[in-house]
Amino acid sequence: MSFLEVRDIYGGYGGLDILRGTDLTVERGEIAVIVGPNGAGKSTLMKAVFGLVKVRQGRIALDGEEIANQPPERMVRRGVGYVPQERNVFPTMTVRENLEMGAYPRSDDIRPAMDRVFDLFPRLAERQGQPAGLMSGGERQMVAMGRALMMEPRLLMLDEPTAGLSPKFIGQTFDMIRRVNGLGITLLMVEQNARQALEIAHRGLVLAMGRKRYEDSGPNLLANREVAEMFLGG
Amino acid sequence: MEVLQLLVYGVVLGSILTLGAIGVSMIFGILRFAHFAHGDMMTLGAYFGLVFVAGAGISPLAALPLAMGLTAGVAIVVDQTIYRRLRRTQPVILLISSFGIALALRSLIQLVWGPNSEVYRSGIQIPHRVFGLVVKPDHLWIVCGAVGLVVAVHLFLTRTKMGKAMRAMSDNMDLALVTGIPAERVIMGTWVLGGAMAAAAGVFLGMDTRLHPTIGWGVLLPVFAAAILGGIGKPYGAIAGGMVIGIAMELSTLVLEPTYKPAVAFAIMVAMLVVRPSGLFGGRT
Amino acid sequence: MEGLIGYGVFFLTMAGIYAVLTLGLNLQWGFTGQFNIGVAGFFAVGAYTSAIVTAPDSAAHLGGFGLPFPIGVAAAAVMSGLAAVAVGWGTMRLRTDYLAIATIGIAEIIRHVLKNEDWLTNGVRGIPGIPRPVETELGLLGVVIGFVILVYLLIERARKSPWGRVLRAIRENENAVMASGKDVADFRLQAFVVGSAIMGLGGALYAHFTAFISPEAFDPLYGTFLIWVMLIAGGSGNNKGALLGTLVIWIVWSGSEILTSRLPVEYVTQAGALRVLLIGVILQVILLYRPEGLLPEERPRLGRPGDG
After folding, report:
1. Would the CB atoms of B168 and A151 count as touching at under 8 Å?
2. Does the residue B284 lie in any domain?
3. What tens digit of pLDDT does each residue of A30-45 get?
4. Terminal alpha carbon distance of chain A
């Protein structure tokens, strides 16, 4: 039994299915990267796992438990974190308050979790009193990931974490992702910077037209000429 | 001297407007609609105060917490029976509904307490003379009460989990949902806060003048003006907005008929909307 | 019997005047999605304009200029339209909530002006002796119905025109209209001004029907509120619905007056509140259970997102 299993799901917005028989498997401790052309349903797939998109048919299981169509609130409590692509911080709230909000469903002491986030991103500890909206793109990404890590999730999903970042911050962000993975957290992400993302991926999936087309380790996918030509721009 | 005297009145009015504007601003920030029943919620709070002042013989200030509690309760009931079920549609439907609630509340108030003016206390208050300015004791209580409540709101929004969650939802609703903040609970908290502050504003209005089924409606426009001036969704801006509008309204009586006070608030608001719709401190548009 | 016919004529004439107002609001809210809760203000501007233009010369207020009825009606529409330009100019690019606040503000200010500027309006004493275009009540009903038909045909035509399609497209998806290179604020302002001018026309009809107007008749709230409930009950965006809603709500409103007038005398002052409460409850029930109204909008193929 795999950690995250998505079997043959159909779903989308309104009456329109974007996911058409999509499969996905992620093992515990992996970094899994979904790549593919625009409109392939990459973000939709992650949103479906998180309960933000209605799944009409098929099953989604986390650690053997059925989790399809659960409200986000419950997903968070089950140890699944989700970082949206844009507008992923509370801009007028301080860094510290952003992290506190991440721990909202917890009723126990959140200081150890916050200390761990500060260990992971020392920059946030330095700037904990700053409003998140005034920080740079890379720092905001740290706040966003830190916020999701406050629940100490088993699975963390990132929707295009490097979108809109300068090349310098893109490298930093992939570093951050590897460090988070080093804590034993399973990561599932959608990425436009497919090559860089696949380099650090234990598992890569190519999604097109709402279905899985290829699946392999990241480096193997990069080496696959067909994939490179069709989906990675040659 | 006359200007200073008007400033005193302006600060009193500004205190009242601020309390109303905090609720309008929070509700707009989180539920995305202009709550047109807010003025009548203020009226309701004033009359709840009257129940205890006239019935139990306590002072309006002692009745204040009771009026706040009851009005918050009514706000929750209105939200749960009507607004909650309209939330899935466009926010503007909520606006129409709140317009109807405003009239329904006012009609109920008139049915229960009658259409005539009432006072908390009859008789004339002996005003203090401070450096030649006339200050009624009630004016002091109103300003002190408002300052106390604003500080309490500030502490609530910055120190408590629920208060921070309200700011988070106002900041970024979608992110608040994926973060696992329970939206419905926070919305209820917002109504408690907005309803209680409206009631306080109503009781203070009643202390300042006299109670009438339209006292709240009469200041709704200045309250909106204060909320817009301060930047919608920014409770702190509401304080500055309330003071600016309150003082401007009173100072305007130097050159205009007092009956045009709401027009002054309106003119400032429209100028603000045209020049800088995000408010003095950059809220939402 | 005669009394009943007399009441019937009065009832229908008032219903016709409300119908004109509701059609004006339908252009703004039903078609374009603009939230005008200052209807009573534009209504009052129209009524006072036509009164001042047509009433015999008087020392008590501006004018009167003793001009004929058609000029009064035209002036009423123009003045209300100008008032709409003043409100709309700054607010057309903003969220509709701001327009709502701005319109209620202008309605309140208009009410204060009517009450306090004696030289213009004779204050609370009002303007008497507004001439009637025809002598009989029945004739007047005919004139009002004529205007209802005229406005209905005009708005119905506008609805089907390319201009009307742009308005509805703005309501459905402002960004798409903007992307097609049209000036959304311009179209909105046009709809707002035309709708308000129609409300002014309704005001003029009211002034000539009652022959006497005073600020009391223009309580911004009850007038505006009733018209809103009429439109929503009938079906926003549907002109036939606007007419039907006007009739139904006017029956409820007048009927409730007949019922409450039978209450013991000590409750009479409260009766008005009870009736407003009734209408307020009706509005909530409609919004909760039949938000599309009695006659839902016929939706032509507009290419809305999701329609394929």
Report:
1. no
2. no
3. 999 999 888 888 999 9
4. 36
In the prediction, which pLDDT does A226 show?
A: 84
The domain total for chain B is 1
SS3 call for B284: strand
3-state secondary structure of C145: helix
Euclidean distance between CA atoms B37 and C275, whole angstroms = 18
Residue A19 in domain = no
User: Which residue range forms the structural domain that includes residue B161?
Assistant: 2-115+128-275
C-alpha distance from A97 to closest chain B C-alpha (Å): 8
Going by their DSSP bridges, the two strands B128-130 and B133-135 should be labelled as: antiparallel
Beta strand extents in chain C (DSSP E only): none
CA B78 to chain centroid: 17
- Total residues found in chain B within this entry: 285
Q: Is A151 on the interface with B (CB under 8 A)?
A: yes
Whether residue A132 is predicted with pLDDT greater than 80 in this model: the reply is yes
Instruction: List all residues of chain C from 152 to 191 with a beta carbon under 8 Å from chain B.
Output: none
pLDDT level of residue A233 (50, 70, 90 thresholds)? low
The residue extents of the domains of chain C are: 9-219
φ/ψ region of C212 (left if φ > 0, alpha if ψ in -120 to 50, else beta) reads beta
Alpha helices for C36-136 (secondary structure H): 39-54, 69-91, 96-116, 118-121
Which chain A positions have a beta carbon within 8 Å of B26's beta carbon?
A: none
Is A126 part of a structural domain of the chain?
yes
Tell if the CB–CB gap between B178 and A105 is shorter than 8 Å.
no
Residue C307: its pLDDT value, please?
34
Task: Using CB atoms within 10 Å of the CB of residue C81, give its burial: 0 to 12 exposed, 13 to 18 middle, 19+ buried.
Answer: buried
Question: For chain C, which ranges sit under pLDDT 70?
Answer: 1, 220, 299-308
Model confidence over C70-121: pLDDT tens digits? 999 999 999 999 999 988 887 887 878 888 888 988 888 898 899 999 999 9
Is C253 part of the contact surface with chain B (CB cutoff 8 Å)? Answer: no
Q: What is the pLDDT of residue B283?
A: 54
Decide if C291 and B115 are in contact by the 8 Å CB cutoff: no
Residue-wise pLDDT tens digits, B190-241: 999 999 999 999 999 999 989 999 999 999 999 999 999 998 778 888 999 9
Which amino acid does the sequence have at A174? F
Q: For residue B282, what pLDDT is reported?
A: 58
Taking the C-alpha atoms of residue B232 and residue B119, their distance in angstroms, rounded to an integer, is 33
Tokens of A13: 């917005």
Neighbouring subunits of A (3+ Cβ pairs under 8 A): B
Confidence of residue A76 (pLDDT cuts 50, 70, 90): very high
**Chain B: residue nearest A77 by CA?**
B180
pLDDT higher than threshold 70 for residue A93:
yes
- pLDDT mean across residues, chain B: 92
Our count of domains for chain A comes to 1
CATH number at residue B166: 1.10.3470
B137 assigned to some structural domain: yes
Chain B residues contacting C via beta carbons under 8 Å: 28, 33-34, 36, 82, 85-86, 89, 91-93, 95-97, 99-101, 103-104, 106-108, 110-111, 114-115, 217, 220-221, 224, 228, 257, 259-260, 262-263, 266, 269-270, 273-274, 277, 285
Rounded to two decimals, the pTM is 0.91
Q: What pLDDT is attached to residue B284?
A: 54
For residue A72, give the nearest of B165, B167, B180 by CB distance.
B180
Across the interface, of C37, C109, C116, the residue whose CB is closest to B99 is C37
Is B181 within 8 Å of chain A by CB? yes
Q: Give me the residue from B95, B99, B110 closest to C273, CB to CB.
A: B110
Beta-carbon separation of B174 and A93 below 8 A: no
Q: ipTM strictly over 0.90?
A: yes
Report how far Cα C38 is from the mean position of its chain's Cα atoms: 9
